[in-house]
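ZP: hey, is the zinc ion complex queued? I don't see it on the tracker
AM: it wasn't, my bad. submitting now with these inputs:
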Amino acid sequence: MKKGDKIVGIVLLILVLLTLSATLVYKKINKGTEHIAVIKSDGKVIKTIDLNKVVGQQKFTVKTASGHFNTIIATKDSIKVKDADCLHKECVKSGSIEEPGGIIVCLPNKLMISIDGEKISTKEEENKVIDGGTF
Ligand SMILES: [Zn+2]
């Protein structure tokens, strides 16, 4: 009897540990994995890219009304200005941004690229809503 109790205790402990580690891994994977690059031209959002879903290289050019351009390259998890016709090419020199909060600005061409990250708290709140709805 005592031996049986011990086994049950160990099994329970293992289950608890497994659940805990699974939760931790889940949270770690989800934390900051949403990388939405927002490209603004002249204050308006012209394009958003989910950097997690970029396969290979996504290259495109943003042209201003006055005929200037910025060539942007998005790869998985990062985005940068590859080329531009602005005077100092500060945007090209900025290199690539990867983390939410990162920003590239091209003042002469009024271009701005930033990365928005979705926080895990939002998802947890969504789950709560779903749980509340089921009985
Ligand atoms: Zn520039």
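AM: back. The two ends are 40 Å apart (CA to CA).
ZP: great, adding it to the tracker
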